[in-house]
Write a structure and sequence with these properties.
The protein is of the alpha+beta class and 110 residues long. 35% of the residues lie in helices and 13% in strands. Strands 1-2 form a two-stranded antiparallel ribbon.
Length: 110
């Protein structure tokens, strides 16, 4: 899909920061505390549940805060989300649980 536009990068940063607050500064995938140290494995990044490179949109509900280590590992197909009952969930199952989007999210998407 190429590089993100500047507008898309700013939107991703805004959504990443909002997700980071909702997640109490913990990585969505591994629950480790994240930081702002450039290129550190625990640096906070914005991660698209449905990958941006495969057509996923930069919208609320598709962006989570993830440490650099998990974001780069997941992009290679190495991580699925485990939730309270310890049932592995793929990003698609996580997205399905978010559907349909709230009215606010639907407004952002269009």
């Amino acid at each position: 899909m190429g590089r993100m536009s500047g507008t898309e990068e700013r939107r991703l940063a805004r959504l990443r920061n909002a997700a980071r607050i909702k997640q109490n500064n913990l990585c969505y995938w591994c629950d480790e505390a994240m930081n702002d140290v450039h290129n550190d494995p625990l640096q906070c990044t914005g991660d698209h549940l449905f990958e941006w490179a495969k057509g996923g949109r930069t919208i609320d509900g598709n962006v989570v805060a993830a440490c650099k280590r998990c974001n780069s590992t997941r992009s290679k197909g190495g991580i699925v989300k485990t939730v309270g009952d310890q049932t592995p969930r793929s990003p698609f199952e996580v997205l399905a649980a978010l559907w349909p989007p709230s009215e606010d999210e639907a407004d952002i998407a269009h």
